[in-house]
Amino acid sequence: MLQGSLRLIILHLVVILFACVGITSSAATYPEGPIRVIIPLPPGGAVDVVARLLQPHLEKALGQSIVIENRPGASGIIGAAAVANAEPDGHTLLMVPTTFTINPAVHASLPFDALRSFEPIIIIGRNSLLFLINADVKATDLQDFVRLAKSQPGKLNYATPGASSQAHLLLELWTSQAGISMQHLPYRGGAPAVMATVAGEAQLTLISPTASLPQITAGKLRALATGGQAREDRLPDVPTAAEAGFPNFLALQWIGLLATGGTPLPIVERLNTEIQRVLQTKSFQARLEEQGMAPAGGPPNEFRALIGAEIRQWTEVARKAKIESK
Fold this sequence. Notes:
By secondary structure, this protein is of the alpha/beta class.
């Protein structure tokens, strides 16, 4: 009996040893062919642009071609599902924006688990969003706007790039914190939301500096605060939301890279290391900043923690505001 148990233990150890050797071997020879980076959005957007900026740097570092593949549809769910179901060998990757953590909060079901079906690799870039008001609105700062909204409950409008968008959830969160009631006007994209605020259809929007700087410079919109942890270099006189009286409010967008769940850790760490090197190069930083983003970086577990925290936050906001994607 004892000898049989001992043989079984030894057999298990041998299986584990061979598995570990296999993982180490696959990581040592990685990549063994072209790497597909799936963008779950149409060409031309920020995620697509950042992927193509990273492409030549990663090809040089890994010695293999990087193939960018756009698979738009269903708020990024179609492209994400393709990566969730791919072989976990690091040859199929997914580049996503913040929407990735919003989908689990606003969809009753998804064809994958946003945490378990993926291995987070790295956050590539971040940018903050701006609180912007129509130039004719009589408010000089965020607290002024809150007082104005409280004097006209439910009468003021805020514009977003769409229902269930990040701006929608963030502004529902902020109005709750501010104790005000506003009407939501969803548009089909950031540019229409900006123009609706310029035209006075909405009094407030929350949008990226890149999408709104021309209108701010022209005096058609006024920036009341940034949702970042620090002031914008391009708008040094605009306070942060914390400075404006909302210490628990952050409005940040990010772009990150993930692999299929179960991808060996050495492959994830190799990709993280190579991209960290790219993020430290002045040329890439300059190109990223042209897109209104600051380089991010950090280890995979930091990215995993962010994904988990954001899913919990958006789920709570969506539940309280009764936001659900149709």
